[in-house]
Design brief:
Layout: H1 13-27, E1 33-37, E2 40-44, E3 51-61, E4 65-75
InterPro entries: Amphi-Trp_dom
Organism: Haloterrigena turkmenica (strain ATCC 51198 / DSM 5511 / JCM 9101 / NCIMB 13204 / VKM B-1734 / 4k)
Domain Amphi-Trp: 9-83
């Protein structure tokens, strides 16, 4: 089963930084992490080891102008809960 929740919106620079801080705060420590995506909050169970990928793309186009993009990807295997084997 695959559930995907995606929300795209235009933010100010400060709002984008605040969202990243909220994500960092949710991941810090032990236990579940609640992550806000648009109007939905998703509860995740991050493990102590997280694969982290950060990509930066710089594009220049005569017609569309320049554009810079940052892509952040993190994934992990959730720890088994006491009821799972």
């Amino acid at each position: 089963m695959v559930d995907k929740t995606l929300a795209a919106e235009e933010l100010t620079r400060d709002e984008a930084a605040e969202r990243l801080r909220e994500l960092a705060d949710a991941l810090e420590g032990d236990g579940p992490a609640s992550v806000r995506t648009g109007n939905k909050t998703v509860s995740l169970r991050p493990s102590q080891s997280i694969a982290y990928e950060l990509g930066v793309r710089e594009r220049s186009s005569i017609l569309r102008g320049s554009r810079e993009t940052i892509s952040l990807k993190m994934d992990w295997k959730p720890p088994k809960s006491s009821g799972e084997e």
